[in-house]
Amino acid sequence: GWDGRGDFTRRRRDIAYESLLHNLRLGCAVAPFLADLRPVRHWAGYEARTRHGRPLIGPVRGQGGLFALVPAAGGWTAAALGGRLIAECVLTGRVPPLAEGLGPEAG
Question: pTM score, two decimals?
């Protein structure tokens, strides 16, 4: 994701024009055919973050069967890895080594 502007208390979120332009330029540098296309839509939203800047991944202690996945940042980029780690927690009942120490109690 790219930085936008927002005010959580007023429930406002806006696209930052400069960030959108940078994103479009980067996309065109990677895939030049994009330069001939027009963006159809864009959006802005809030990204959940933890106080310590690390993700929370794992079972919620004392809440049998409840698991948490809160990214630190990275949105789309980190989603695949976070999804894989939380799926392993759910399917095996064990926290994978990469997620050790990142359980909700660490937050």
Answer: 0.59
CA distance 37 to 44: 21
Residue where the block lists tokens 């027009």? 38
Structure tokens at 14: 């806006």
What is the rounded (10 degree) CA torsion for 89, 91, 92, 97? -30
Long-range contacts of 48-51 (CB under 8 A, 24+ apart): 49/73, 50/107, 51/107
- At 29-61, the pLDDT tens digits run 999 999 999 988 888 877 777 878 888 889 998
Per-residue pLDDT tens for 96-106?
Answer: 999 988 888 87
